[in-house]
Amino acid sequence: MKPTRITLHHSLTKDSGTVSWNAIRMYHMQLLGWTQIGYHYGIELVGQHYEILMGRMMNEIGAHCKGHNEGSIGICFIGNFDLSRPCPEQWELGVKLVKSLIDVLGIPPCRILGHCYYDSNKTCPGKYFDVINFVKAVTT
Questions:
Q1: In the chain, how many H helices and how many E strands?
Q2: Considering Cα of 23, then 38, then 60, then 125, what sign does the dihedral take?
Q3: Which of 39, 43, 67, 70 has minimal CB crowding within 10 Å?
Q4: Are 56 and 76 in contact (CB under 8 A)?
């Protein structure tokens, strides 16, 4: 798979400061029957710092945006951004990750989109996650 776009998500769960990534992985595998977690990356509070967690390999098709997984890197920000804004540290780490992906993969910033762009029934990555300002931050 040659990634040509990035799709942003939120987990819709509270980030508790413990590793929720494995819980998401188990949900995807045990309840949904997938072979692995659907996202390529997660950004989560682990202890007192945000970390980038690996999911699927970048050359593998994700399972994070029905009908739009081919060519898309899925990044899940752990948290419910329908209720509150992402923490600045999490936001900045996400910007840093996406900047590196667009530099390495040559993905144009206009191809960084929220999951809600593909499914109007979803708010993902959350109504308090400003995708437009995120893309601006990535390009500055």
A1: 3, 5
A2: negative
A3: 67
A4: no
Region of 4 on the Ramachandran plot (φ > 0 left; ψ -120 to 50 alpha; else beta): alpha
- Indicate the SS3 state at residue 2: coil
pLDDT one-digit tens code per residue, 5-50: 999 999 988 766 666 888 899 999 999 999 999 999 999 998 889 9
Token code pair at residue 5: 């776009």
pTM of the model: 0.95
pLDDT digits (tens, 9 = 90+) for 72-90: 999 999 999 999 999 999 9
Q: How far is Cα 55 from Cα 32, in angstroms, rounded to an integer? A: 16
Cβ(25)–Cβ(61) below 8 Å: no
